Every structure is written in structure tokens, then in C-alpha cells.
Amino acid sequence: MHRRSFLSGMLLAGVGGFSLKSLAASMSHTMLADGSPMPLLDPALLASGTDQGGMSMLANESSQPRLFKATLTAKAVRVPLLKDGPTEFWTYNGSLPGPLIDVMEGDTVEITLHNQLSQPTSIHWHGLPVPPSQDGNPQQAIAPGQKITYRFTLPEGSAGTYWYHPHPHEFTAEQASRGLAGGFIVRAKQDPLAGVPERLLILSDLKLDHMGQIAPNNSDDWMNGREGQFVLTNAQNKPTVHFDAGGRERWRIWNANSARYLRLQLPGSQLALIGTDGGLLEHPITGLTEHVLAPGQRIELIVDAGKRRDQGKLIAAVYARGKMGDVAPDKPLDILTVDFSRVATGQVVSLPARLATIKDLGRPVAQKRVVFSEKMTMTNGQHGMQFLVNGKEYDMHRIDLTSRVDEVELWEIVNQSDMDHPFHLHGTQFQVQSREMDGVVKTESYLAWHDTINLKSGETVRIKTVQHWPGIRMFHCHILEHEAVGMMGQLEVV
């Protein structure tokens, strides 16, 4: 399919498992009476530039050693963003973003979720090694007014930067866009960078209509994935951060956007990549000027002030991911301002040459092939779009692939669509082996732990992975709108 033949005004139709009634209701609220698109809020009206505040922490209710016990309540709150009136968000414990969960590897986690929303919901512990029964799969959503308790133990070696968000089928995209997401850090008992000051940056998208309310999705959102006027940092618009006086910081960055890719740059500074989704790399990768973070991914960076005593901008540069339809061209976005003026003159301690040991998963004993694709449809005179996995739309009652507990597998993931798609596999971390484009295969240059990996249009990525618990696991595109309308499958581990 040729991208430019796809009209931006079309409606999705005939998408299995997705509620066309709810989509139609959503679409009707994105148009004015004369049929023109509903205007969005002028970005200049949202306050920006304030000093970045602290992040809310989820309190441990347990006095028992190595047990983290807490409660999360999903509920609507009204936040005074604008002078004209409050904006309704959906939150965990009234916090934007959701309160940070900060635990140690080896800890047992017990969290009770209370659903005070008008929709069913669940919590998916994105990237964490938890049993399928505790992972908030679509089959495990709880109704409004109900509660569920998740309990799991984090194994040794699971230190990393994770997050949590809803995963009820058909409702995930809306609940995430309204604010339901939070960070989850698993700390190592022996951390080679424990003395480096940390900065936590959860980057999330916000789309407000002209009345200052969270806008419903329009046809472009369902087609390309939702992007708003704002990229918030810990729910703040373009805040200012004051760099540590010691001259070096460790940044943990979450891409909690529904669909926005973040081509992160800090002009005037070089960056060192030290960690991916599932923890530290073996060695720092230094001298970087940018890093692309796909939706759902996390990274750890070392940022040095060097001789800087000025102010710099962390920006999201334009990333061409192959949007379809007659959409406006992307522009660079300022994420935050970094104030280096308080840095003291002196020499920072050098980075360790070795950060961690990552063992190769070993020889695969089975293989899988996953193909992402898209297809135009016509139903009752209306154009539609299907996002498919192995030629099929998601069906909660169908098993798409089967694996065995503790068997190492080689997965070949192929993107036959016209746009980038981030692939996410539940319940485990995997190791990228190679990438292939136009018949040219490139071996991955470093070993790392991932649970989400981007595939460019026409690209094939090969990974090694292993599942350690029996049950059903999800694999899907982490553009949440694509997941919702069919780009998801089910893996049964036996």
C-alpha cells in the first residue's frame, strides 16, 4: 500500500475485536458541526519553564524485610492546568505520573489495585519478569468498583528501569492517554554507579482540545498513533532542571508516549549510553550526540557538564517514522531546559570500564516468525485500515504461537508495513542478534537486555528470548492505537 493514497479523513472499519460503536462516538467529538476538525489548545496557553518538581513515591505499607506492599487506586482527578477550569486526568493515587515504585532485586512485591474508573482496567508490569497470572493481561481486567492484588518476587539480576500501565483490551490507549502510567525501578544490590546523582524523566504525550480537556482520538490518531501538542516531563511542560553541582548525572528516561518516537538530543553535550530496558550494559557507549527511543522503551544515560555553565535544551528532533495520510510535517520539540550554571569547577570521577556482565542466552532450540503488516479495507463504502500480526487481527480467544518453558528461541520479527512499529514481548527480556534491511544483515554491535525494540519499515530484527513460566503472554506493537485495533498476538508457554 502506498502511504500517500491513504486519506486522512477516513474512518477505521471492520476491525475485529474493536468496538466500532465506541470509535464512532469518539470520532463524532473530534469534528465541529460544519465537519471541520475540532481545534486544539494553543500550546502557548499551557504554563512552562518552571523548576522541575520531585516525583511522587509509592509508600511501602509493610514492615516485613524484603516485602514491598502497597495500594494503587485508578481514579479520575481534576487538575487546574488552565485559568478557564480544571482538566480531568485519570491517575494512580491522584498522582501524575503514577507514583514511582522503587524496590531491590530479590524483593517480593504485593500491590492491590482498586478500580474507580468507569472502564475495566488492569496493571501490566512492563518488562518485569513476573508470572503470566500477575502480568495484567487483557484477560485479567477487573470491572469498575473491583480490586485485584498482584504479587511477585523479583529475581536476582533483574535490576533495571521498568514501568507500569493499564492493559485492558480496547481501553489501553485511552487510559494511557489520560495519564495512567508510572515508573518502576528495580535496584541492584551492587550498583557500580550508585554514587552518581540520578535524574528520572518520564516523558509522556498530552493532547488537549481548545477547551483544555484531553481530546479524543481522531482518524489520524487511530491510523498513525496518537500525538499531542505537548511532551511532558514528569507531567510538567518544558520544565527547567538544575544540573548537579558535581558535574555528572545518571538519567533514567522513559518513553511513556502512546506513539511518539523520541530522537533525543542535548546540543552542546555528548552522551554515554549505559543501560537499556532491562538494565546496565556491559560497557558504556560514549560520544553519542543522540538516541532514538521508541514508544515503551527506556534508557539510562550518563550526562556530563564538561565545561558547560550555560543553559541547554533537551530536544526531540524530527524522526521520520512513516506516518500515513495528509498529516502536518513534524517539528522539533523542546522537552526541557538544563541549567548548568551551578556546576562547580573540578574533575568528575571516571566511569567504570565495566558496568555489568551479560551472558548470551545460548543456542536456540526453536524458532518463531512474527510479521507486522497493514491492509486497507472497504466496508459499507468506508475506507478502513487493519493492523495485523501474521496476517491476522488480535483475537483474545486464539493462541497464535506456542513455546516451552526455559527453552531458548530465535524470533524473526518482520515489518512489512509502511511505518515503524515497536515490538514488545511480555514477561521477559530478550537479546537482539541482528537487523536486516534490503538484504543486508548487520550483527548487533553490543549485547543488551530489551523488552521493546523498534522495526523500521521493511526491516527484519532477530532476537533470542526465553520464557520461564507457563501461561499466556502477549506480543504486540507498542503504538497503543495499533495494538487496540489488531496488532497483537498471544503466546502460550507450556
From TrEMBL:
Stretch forming the signal peptide: 1-24
Molecular function GO terms recorded: copper ion binding; oxidoreductase activity
Keywords: Metal-binding, Oxidoreductase, Signal
Gene3D superfamilies per record: Cupredoxins - blue copper proteins (2.60.40.420)
Domain Plastocyanin-like: start-end pairs: 83-190, 222-308, 375-493
Keyword Oxidoreductase carried by entry: yes
Entry-linked SUPFAM superfamilies: Cupredoxins (SSF49503)
One Gene Ontology term, aspect cellular component: cell outer membrane
Record's subcellular location: Cell outer membrane
UniProt cross-references to Pfam families, sorted A to Z: Cu-oxidase, Cu-oxidase_2, Cu-oxidase_3
Predominant place of localization: membrane
Membrane topology field: Lipid-anchor
Protein name listed in UniProt: Multicopper oxidase family protein
